[in-house]
Amino acid sequence: MDLMGLCSICGRPGALHTCSLCGRLVCDNCFDSVYNVCNICKTGKQ
Ligand SMILES: [Zn+2]
Ligand SMILES: [Zn+2]
To answer: Whole-prediction pTM value?
Structure first.
């Protein structure tokens, strides 16, 4: 397992994006490329 590439939200490998608000490294499924934030920041739930 590549620990550096794990999504901070779902835990799957292949995280490619960094949230501009919280700095989480997240995968494509957990990232909103329109707002440049992760799904947690997008929904406002911490
Ligand atoms: Zn994910
Ligand atoms: Zn975030």
So the answer is: 0.80
How many distinct structural domains can be found in the chain?
1
Which range of residues forms the domain containing residue 35?
3-43
19: Cα within 13 Å, side-chain hemisphere: 20
| pLDDT tens figures, 14-33 | 999 999 999 999 999 999 99
Tokens representing residue 31 in the block: 């990232």
Q: How far is the CA of 10 from the centre of ligand 2 (A)?
A: 13
Q: How far is the CA of 14 from the centre of ligand 1 (A)?
A: 8
Q: Residue 35 C-alpha to ligand 2 middle, in angstroms?
A: 10
